[in-house]
Design goal:
By secondary structure, the chain is α/β, with parallel strands linked by helices. It is built from 11 helices and 15 strands. It folds into 2 domains: 241 residues, Dihydropteroate synthase-like (TIM Barrel, Alpha-Beta Barrel), CATH 3.20.20.20; 91 residues, 2-Layer Sandwich (Sulfite Reductase Hemoprotein, domain 1). Helix 2 packs parallel to helix 3, helix 3 runs parallel beside helix 4 and helix 6 packs parallel to helix 7. The two termini are 35 Å apart. The structure holds iron/sulfur cluster (SF4).
Length: 345
């Protein structure tokens, strides 16, 4: 595990050996406080630990105060080009800002941001995305160009004595994301915010993000993560929690379900999806198995906390390794749901 520095974002610690922090980002208009707060609170209920909002103008930055009063999670402001938005958002209580000093251009304006960020202990995330690489680095191998672009931003902050930094290097390509993060991790010890950028809709994102994040987590390089998915950001948080659960880094639910075949006697997918939805937000380690027949159903059922397996005319129900009984299909599904409810209390 890489020994990264620790950075505090509100009451959440990133890096320094702390557990990996789950982040997501709203896709509402930040000026619409009602909708933004509603989405943030949905994200938090799902398990999001830090939320980022886009602050494209000063009006948005002014809304930060109102938003902060109604949420219980550290808030990050995403800012580009205009140093005044960064300063305004800090004055209004933002917990962290994401800027690239390089695109603010005037060093005296960067210094103004750094001064107030230091005063208020607001960390800054800097980084590079493949979508906006500096022209003069384009001749380098992509991972190196990404890494150097981010390190250049880091140096602009360090020049002003600012070290409360988180770094991100993101590509829409999973392999490039892995290589770029490894490149940066070799050179500095600031915590890394990791994710595949513009990862796409759910299938693409989940596969790309799993490749990149699992590899980098195994390398010990991930301090905080975002799984970027087009659409409802709640899916980002559900996916991030599943990833950390399946990597045995968090307690969480798992639904084991078979792909079905000619032996299946009930609609496995429908039952599994319904259970998944019911237990998605639970923090306890719970395994539910839903198998179409008894070929593998008995073994899986006995290993799960609760499970069913299809059999002639109904389903066999298991609870904590024991067969509870055999029931007609409908009754068996209802009983399974009752047991799941009991387990999640
Ligand atoms: S558990 Fe049974 S129904 Fe499901 S895929 Fe395996 S053999 Fe087919």
């Amino acid at each position: 595990m890489r020994a990264s520095k620790m950075v505090k974002v509100g009451d959440i610690s990133i890096g320094g050996g702390n557990p990996i922090v789950i982040q997501s980002m709203t896709n509402t208009d930040t000026r619409d406080v009602e909708k933004t707060v509603e989405q943030i609170n949905n994200l938090v209920r799902t398990g999001c630990e830090i939320v980022r909002v886009s602050l494209p103008d000063l009006e948005c930055a002014k809304k930060v105060k109102e938003i902060k009063e109604r949420i219980s999670v550290p808030l990050v402001g995403d800012i580009h080009f205009d140093y005044r938005i960064a300063i305004e958002s800090i004055k209004n209580g933002i917990d962290k800002i994401r800027i690239n000093p390089g695109n603010i251009r005037d060093p005296s304006k960067v210094l103004e941001i750094v001064k107030i960020a230091k005063e208020r202990s607001v960390p800054i995330r800097v980084g590079a995305n493949t979508g906006s690489l500096p022209k003069d680095l384009e001749h380098l191998p992509r991972e190196q160009a990404l890494g150097e672009a981010a390190l250049r931003e880091v140096k602009l902050l360090e020049k002003h004595g600012f070290n409360d930094i988180v770094i991100s290097v993101k590509s829409s390509d999973a392999i490039e994301t892995i290589q770029a993060n490894r490149y940066v991790a070799k050179q500095v010890d600031y915590p890394l915010h990791v994710g595949v950028t513009e990862a796409g809709t759910i299938y693409n994102s989940l596969i790309k993000s799993s490749i990149a994040l699992s590899t980098l987590i195994m390398d010990g390089l991930v301090d905080t993560l975002r799984i970027s998915i087009s659409g409802n950001p709640v899916n980002e948080v559900i996916s991030a929690r599943k990833l950390l659960t399946f990597l045995h880094l968090r307690e969480g639910p798992d639904v084991v379900a078979c792909p079905t075949c000619a032996r299946s006697v009930f609609d496995v997918e429908k039952v599994a999806l319904a259970i998944e939805e019911k237990i998605a937000k639970i923090d306890k380690k719970i395994t539910v198995s839903v198998l179409g027949c008894i070929v593998n159903g008995i073994g899986e059922g006995k290993e799960a906390d609760v499970g069913i397996a299809g059999t002639k005319g109904g389903v066999v129900l298991f609870y904590k390794g024991q067969i509870v009984g055999t029931y007609p299909y409908e009754e068996g599904i209802n009983k399974l749901e009752e047991y799941v409810k009991e387990l999640t209390k």
